[in-house]
Amino acid sequence: MSRLNTLILGIGNTLLSDEGIGLHVLSTLQRKHPLIDGVEYIDGGTLSFTLAGWIEQADRLIVLDAAEFHQPPGTIRCLHNEEMDRFLGLPKRSVHEVSLLDLVDIARLAGHLPEQRTLVGIQAEKIDWGENPSPAVAAAIPAAVETIEELLRDWGHLVPARQMPDQQPIQEEAAL
What we know:
31% helix, Rossmann fold, 5-stranded mixed β-sheet, alpha/beta
């Protein structure tokens, strides 16, 4: 595996409503910008130690995930570098208890921690069976994509400003 410039890692479980928001944002971003020079998209699902190698190979890392910020549902926060690291070390750092911290620590111990790293976290409203995020969290997807586009531009990537031709909002499941 050659050295990557920027890795965008979406994580979560799309069977648990808002828990899958990182993957919904990743999918939307990837449809909007299928090819950005120097950017690799990875669906990390519910995480695995096999992702450590991808993280170690990246110069820059963007993680997309649901997070507990004690804010209104759909709130987006970006945590950069050491701020991200501190947040990952907190109890209940994420609404799923898979350890992104372990993956970051593996990269740090190997001496290959991405120099720049950002967690783009979105406050969840509900974690329950369902394939779609709640309305407030789904409504945050376009703003999260814009946040990532701006971050990529700040990091020197050429991100075209084009609209997705097939943009369709995610609908909340009908009540059973």
